[in-house]
Amino acid sequence: MVYNSFQTSILTRIILLVVNLMALSYLIIRQERFFTIIFLALLVVIQIILLFLYLNRTNRNLARFLLLLTHEDTSVIQWKEKVEKTFRGLHHSFRKVNEEINRIRMEKEKGSILLEGIIQHMEAGIIVMDESGLIEVINVPAMQALGINRLEHVDELDSLQEGMSGLLSGMRFDSGNVIAYRRAGQEESHLLVRVSLLKLEDRTLKIYSIQDIRTQLEANEIESWQKMTRVLSHEISNSVTPISTLGDGIHMKLKQGRYDKGGRLIIGKDAAKDLLHGSDLIQQRSNALVEFMEHYKNFSRLPDPVPGKIVLSDFFEALELLFREDMKKAGIRFEFELADPTLAIRGDQNLIEQAFINLVRNSIEALEGRNDGFVQIKAAKQQNLHVSLEVHDNGPGISPEIQSQVFTPFFTTKSGGTGIGMSIVRKIVVMSGGTITINSESGHGTDVTVSLSLY
Questions:
Q1: N or C: which terminus of the chain carries fewer CB neighbours within 10 A?
Q2: In 3-state terms, what secondary structure has residue 72?
Q3: Count of CB atoms within 10 A of residue 312's CB?
Q4: Could you report the per-residue pLDDT of 145-186, keeping only the tens digit for each?
């Protein structure tokens, strides 16, 4: 059994106090020995005072000991002796507690250092900002993207580019935003910024991820131009080569012709027929080339979107009315699925309508010749403040090889097709701040999903 001097001392003092109180009470009741009564009364008061002083001194020693123990002070050794005299084994117990606290503290510090290292080594820039605009965390890639060495408050960005702080503070959460940003003495950069919220007890923090996508945009732009150049070269070659061949043929026939005494060319009936047919073909190919270039100009001249509220119930009703007769003639079942009739998206009514007219038209063409054709458009709210609009048909589907080329301008597998329908659709969706994906398998239909911002 561990001997505890504190308990013994308290117990001894209480016993002596009780004995004196009993003796004092006895003498008061007997009314004897007046001076003894006064002496015992003073002794009781002194005992009570000494008991309180002892408790206070013990509490101070214990508090001092714990404070030194927490801070790992070397003077804890002398206080250990004092405390050990009163509380046997207490130092060892609290030492174990202190070691556990230090272990937890070290783990937290290691976690903080690890998190700081991860943030600093991320390729994307990270900025953590509180509600007042104070910067809690900013890593090196973020400072490099913004062209700064330090940042303490978001308002400091206004000195680099006017309105930058307001632009960041007013961004929608969980959505990508592309910002044109010009660093001092450098070319304009395009920054992709995403924002999310973090609730930390009673605080709300904004986390910004920043990526300089100029290089990526330039690479994508070069790739797009290469694809477009290949398609343009192919289409122009398809028109120019026959024209050149026909021109050579006409030239040879004219060269081989006979001339009369007046120097006039004499052409036989068959040769004249061939020349006329050749000139008709040249005219057809020339008109086709002019029409192709007109389509190219239309593709590159889409108007800037004017965002507004598009109520999907009204939008679907307009689409149904537009295609009612075409669907009836083609024997295609046309359906809509909208769980919430109040659901609305943010976009340009005319451009979004044009995009979906192209998508539905593609589905109708894919179902040509089928008697069980089915086209469905359904809308669903997503968790990231977006709405997905899916156009589904049960047509023959698209092979993976074709899918990779679907959005390439002027690429088409249809006879007489222009190849700009899907390119225009994607351009409209991207201009509206959305995304478009295609999921299709040969023989299993096609799903085209457009994701646009919730209004």
A1: N
A2: coil
A3: 20
A4: 887 888 888 888 888 777 788 877 777 665 567 777 766 555
Q: How far apart are CA 295 and CA 411, in angstroms?
A: 13
d(CA 121, CA 99) in angstroms, rounded, equals 32
| CA dist list (Å): 46 to 9, 42, 56, 145, 295 | 16, 6, 15, 76, 109
CB 388, CB 450: distance < 8 Å: yes
Q: Which tens digit of pLDDT belongs to each residue from 78-106?
A: 545 555 555 555 556 666 766 777 788 88
Q: How many CB atoms lie within 10 A of CB 401?
A: 7
CB contact at 8 A, 348 and 452: no
Domain locations along the chain: 5-101, 122-212, 217-299, 308-453
Say whether pLDDT at 292 is over 80: no
Length, in residues, of the chain = 455
Question: CA 4, CA 287: separation in Å to the nearest integer?
Answer: 110
pLDDT above 70 coverage of the chain, percent = 69
Class of domain 122-212: alpha beta
Can you tell me the distance from the alpha carbon of 250 to that of 272, in angstroms, rounded to the nearest whole number?
10
Decide: 137 and 126 in contact? Cβ < 8 Å: yes
pLDDT in tens, 401-425: 777 777 776 666 665 555 667 888 8
The architecture CATH gives domain 308-453? 2-Layer Sandwich (3.30)
